[in-house]
């Protein structure tokens, strides 16, 4: 039976005024349409450099030619650079005892998006990241978030839905909450932390690969925490502790499934209208979640989420700029 690519619906509750205690307790009630879309452009305030080599106004023939040339290099040369990077992931580091573990990512060019049936992820196109960066090895956890709460820099009271806290991914956080955590890390360490751009996120998720998942064209049970995808011990239709499934070739865990992850970009409906980071009403989330089918956990998968809305299927990871 063919996969259903119609818009998904996640249940969430909009963040509102009043007490934060118990946020997320009880079933989320506000329908949230998950409609994916293509790569976002770069806002001036974000500063990390990446370049769409075809450009939003390039003729389709130019885009096709560029895409064909890049695919030829990647396929015929056997993804030489990507394979070398995959065989030697960068060392894990952290900037402070309560900081998340980070992995450095080299600058490079990759194929972002796909030419599949989902219009929001089309077209596949080459993107160049001009500068290296470091990305969280895992999604930010409850324990890591609590350190920010204890410092008075992040709101508390988020519900864990009875799944446990500790090393589970932090959930029930808005886009602004995630940014507050990144600002706290920046102040604590003296380094610039922020949410990743979509291009940075997908580059790290693919880790030198061009297949739907970093491990290939098909998904076997036990590789990803998504709906009908898992095996023991995490098969309870819930989040799993971070790093419960295999890491990708660059050392990142849970880039597919577990919880959706906030990125910096505003939402736009297609590749040709880049938006970059805010201000805006709707943001973008990446990676899929335990709540959704396997097709939604692919490297190119993306979805819209209103910035003030939190959910038990949405978390985040942070990026650290490298000077």
UniProtKB/TrEMBL annotation:
<feature type="region of interest" description="Disordered">
    <location>
        <begin position="17"/>
        <end position="58"/>
    </location>
</feature>
<feature type="domain" description="Sulfatase-modifying factor enzyme-like">
    <location>
        <begin position="99"/>
        <end position="320"/>
    </location>
</feature>
<dbReference type="Pfam" id="PF03781">
    <property type="entry name" value="FGE-sulfatase"/>
</dbReference>
<dbReference type="InterPro" id="IPR051043">
    <property type="entry name" value="Sulfatase_Mod_Factor_Kinase"/>
</dbReference>
<protein>
    <submittedName>
        <fullName>Uncharacterized conserved protein</fullName>
    </submittedName>
</protein>
<dbReference type="InterPro" id="IPR042095">
    <property type="entry name" value="SUMF_sf"/>
</dbReference>
<dbReference type="InterPro" id="IPR016187">
    <property type="entry name" value="CTDL_fold"/>
</dbReference>
<dbReference type="GO" id="GO:0120147">
    <property type="term" value="F:formylglycine-generating oxidase activity"/>
</dbReference>
<dbReference type="InterPro" id="IPR005532">
    <property type="entry name" value="SUMF_dom"/>
</dbReference>
């Amino acid at each position: 039976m063919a996969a259903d690519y119609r818009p998904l619906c996640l249940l969430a509750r909009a963040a509102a005024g009043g007490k934060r205690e118990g946020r997320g307790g009880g079933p989320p009630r506000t329908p949230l349409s998950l409609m994916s879309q293509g790569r976002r452009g770069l806002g001036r305030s974000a500063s990390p450099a990446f370049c769409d080599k075809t450009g939003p106004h390039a003729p389709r023939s130019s885009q096709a030619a560029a895409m064909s040339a890049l695919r030829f290099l990647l396929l015929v040369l056997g993804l030489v650079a990507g394979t070398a990077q995959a065989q030697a992931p960068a060392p894990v580091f952290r900037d402070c005892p309560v900081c998340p573990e980070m992995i450095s990512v080299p600058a490079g060019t990759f194929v972002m998006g796909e030419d599949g049936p989902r219009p929001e992820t089309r077209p596949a196109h080459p993107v160049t990241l001009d500068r290296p960066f470091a990305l969280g090895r895992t999604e930010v956890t409850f324990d890591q978030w609590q350190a920010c709460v204890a410092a008075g820099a992040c709101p508390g009271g988020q519900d864990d839905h009875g799944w446990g806290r500790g090393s589970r991914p932090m959930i029930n956080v808005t886009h602004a909450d995630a940014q507050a955590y990144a600002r706290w890390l920046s102040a604590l360490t003296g380094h610039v932390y922020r949410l990743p751009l979509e291009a940075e996120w997908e580059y790290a998720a693919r880790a030198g690969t061009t297949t739907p998942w970093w491990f290939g064209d098909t998904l076997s049970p036990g590789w990803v925490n998504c709906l009908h995808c898992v095996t023991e011990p995490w098969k309870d239709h819930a989040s799993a502790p971070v790093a419960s499934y295999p890491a990708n070739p660059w050392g990142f865990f849970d880039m597919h499934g577990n919880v959706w992850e906030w990125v910096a970009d505003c939402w736009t409906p297609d590749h040709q209208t880049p938006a970059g980071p805010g201000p805006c009403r709707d943001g973008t989330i990446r990676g899929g979640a335990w709540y959704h089918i396997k097709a939604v956990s692919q490297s190119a998968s993306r979805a819209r989420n209103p910035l003030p809305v939190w959910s038990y299927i949405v978390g985040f990871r942070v990026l650290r700029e490298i000077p």
